[in-house]
Automatic annotation (TrEMBL):
InterPro entries: NTF2-like_dom_sf. This is Nuclear transport factor 2 family protein.
Length: 138
């Protein structure tokens, strides 16, 4: 047993690391609320991966370029929905974080709950989202 290699500890984010991720989401949410889709796209690292499943439980994955993302998000954002979110970042390393979001949104007076995840990548000191994971879009 003495010859076993010592495993390095997992990355432990500082409060500043966590705050930077949550601030990124605050900015993204504001852009989404005001339907600034081109600026939302500036926060992505393309090609953007999307992972989901369908009602039968079959998973799927796809990717989109900036043009496709802008086209799809233009149809989705700015429809009067209000969202409240609680986000839990899970740092994989200093520059990779998977964020699980538990959200409630209200649209046309009806409240809906959902859970989704985003993989953010830090490059040159800035966060970008690269993979979106949410059930039910397949």
């Amino acid at each position: 047993m003495a010859d076993d290699p010592i495993e390095e500890p997992a990355f432990e984010p500082s409060p500043e690391d966590v705050a930077s991720v949550l601030a990124w989401f605050d900015d993204y949410d504001e852009l989404a609320a005001t339907a600034q889709v081109e600026r939302m796209a500036d926060l992505a690292m393309f090609p953007l991966n999307s992972v989901t499943d369908d009602a039968e439980g079959n998973g799927s994955a796809s990717w989109s370029d900036r043009e496709q993302y802008v086209r799809e998000m233009t149809e989705i954002v700015g429809d009067g929905a209000r969202m409240e979110s609680v986000r839990t970042p899970h740092f994989l390393s200093r520059s990779l974080v998977f964020v699980v979001t538990d959200a409630t949104y209200t649209h046309d007076g009806v409240r809906h709950r959902m859970r989704y995840g985003d993989l953010l990548i830090r490059r040159e000191g800035r966060w970008y989202f690269q993979t979106m994971v949410q059930g039910g879009w397949g």
